[in-house]
Amino acid sequence: MNMLLRTSPLRRVLLTALAALLVLIASQVLDPFRNFQFATIAAYLCATAGLTVLTGLNGQLSLGHGALMASGAYSVALIQDAFGGRRLAAGWILVVTLLGALAVGVAAGAVIGLAAARLQGPHLAGLTLGVAVIVPSLATTFDALFGGEQGLPVQAAQPPLALGATFPYERWQVWLAWTITLPTILLLTNLVHSRLGRDMRAVRDHEVAASLSGIDVARTRVVTFTVSAGCAALGGALLAVLTQVASPGSYPLTLSVFLLMAVVIGGLDSLTGAIWGALLLVALPDLAQSVTGLFSFPPGEAQRWEGNLPTAAFGLMLITVMAVAPTGVSGLQRRVVRAAADRWRARRPNPGAETP
Amino acid sequence: MDSSGLMLEGVGLRFGGLTALSDVSLRVPPGQVVGVIGPNGAGKSTLFNVICGLLRPDTGRLLMDGRALRRLRPHQLTRLGVARTLQDVGLFDGLSVLENVMAGATNRARAGFASALFGLPRSGRDERRLRDHAREVLDELGLSGFADASPPSLPYAIRQRVALARALAARPRLLLLDEPAGGLGPEDIDKLSTLIQDLPRRADHPCSVLLVEHHMDLVMGVCDEVVVLNFGRVLITGTPDQVGDDPRVAEAYLGTTVEAAA
Description:
The complex is a heterodimer. Chain A has one domain (2-251): ABC transporter involved in vitamin B12 uptake, BtuC. Chain A contains 15 helices and two strands. Chain A has helices at 2-7, 9-29, 32-57, 65-82, 91-116, 121-141, 143-146, 169-192, 195-205, 207-212, 217-243, 253-266, 271-294, 299-324, 328-347; strands at residues 152-153, 245-246. In chain A, strands 1-2 form a two-stranded antiparallel ribbon. Chain B starts with 5 loop residues before the first strand and ends with a helix. Chain B folds into two domains: 6-81 and 172-261, 3-Layer(aba) Sandwich (Rossmann fold), CATH 3.40.50; 92-155, no CATH class. By secondary structure, chain B is an alpha/beta fold. Chains A and B meet through helix 2, helix 8, helix 9 and helix 10 of A and helix 2, helix 3 and helix 4 of B.
């Protein structure tokens, strides 16, 4: 039974249900602002999870995931627009817009993935960097379609009336965002633990040996990029729904870089790292604000500190992680858990019939 | 004419002005171990890369059991019953030993993307089948104890053996071994030699072997037939004894022809 639980998809479904319960509890406890932040973590998590699969498991470097998030966000705005002024409260419109954003991301990912299948390392980084540079400038250049610097408005997703007229809006945002993100993570985990996940890692480790083992290297790369881009677009779409805007300013080149830094700090070799990464992306600016709040700066200076401290802290963290713990926060976490488990087992005289 | 096994007919390949292979013909019949030897730069590795589809020949044909291997891509090779080991071992360092061997059996995986994504039972069954089979191969090669180990933590001889297990996991009818004795001590070479000789005779999924090797004792000990390459051409083909006695072979190795080439 233990073995069955350890490896089966059933265990993952149970874990996801447990996570959903925790989200539900958290959404009751947190104040509205924290709830909003909690919801944005879900949006970023889609993107960081996709990037972890791409970079960590498949070894493809992408500097363009911020732009892929933008493609999801703009898709939401444009599809909503196509539905005319209809209220988004009609739940199915929201589902259609998110699916549409996912489809756009998947298509973009397939195109970039096909172009990237024969590229490696710096060349692939160059290609995706190009995408990250082009997308925001496309948005500002074709301002009739994309709304220029202002971007496009996105309708808020109102809580369904069934929840009562006084249901807190931010709590609904949390529910909505995590309802999308948790199943996404579940599916990604399935994929990572399947043959395809093994193929991805084999291709990352030794391309020639992978192809001689019967793995279609190019196909594996394209599929991984497509999946990863779909996740990023879905994350961008969620973020647009949460912030009610799709603008070039929300998806600058630095977002792509931050996403990559976040997954590296979080830990590239597991999806747990992606959770740490998403948490960091949302929490860091906030932490910086609290830190600068501790000092009594004049208003102008405080603003400058708040603006730059997160970036600096992020950079410092990356350097520290690279130097001290290359497996990232999730690697550290694994080591701590393992040490604790060892100690616990050592205390019990008979560990029983359990085998690792 | 019997055309089973691997056949090369008049294979030629040029890199710019350099002739890497010229009119190479050879055959690896089922149940046999064939060795390819020759001095450095004779074209042994190039020959392997042509057979694997890593390089395309300019002229000539390759046939596996009478089927022409045209426009072959490397990952299709195992489906045709051909597996290959690499000179640099080339294990997947981020995968466990068991996973490495499972990866070698990819040609027999059935479940596709959707069943993997949704964690359907079909995908789980498929993985269990591959895992069971990988364990069998590890057993056969005496590697069961290393199943959960990470390759970089293992000694070279064991890693070499894991690479062999990975290739055998594909259940090939022909196994290409690229300098398997490189870096091994005498004791491990003896074990390897027994292993190679057993491959065509084993009860389940016997396979013939094409072996590129520098280690003369190994080649002479295990091969039914030896092909000597020199400057990209087949110098002679014969039994180990015939090849060992041929003065042209010694000449090629001792380099009296080097002046002519230079």
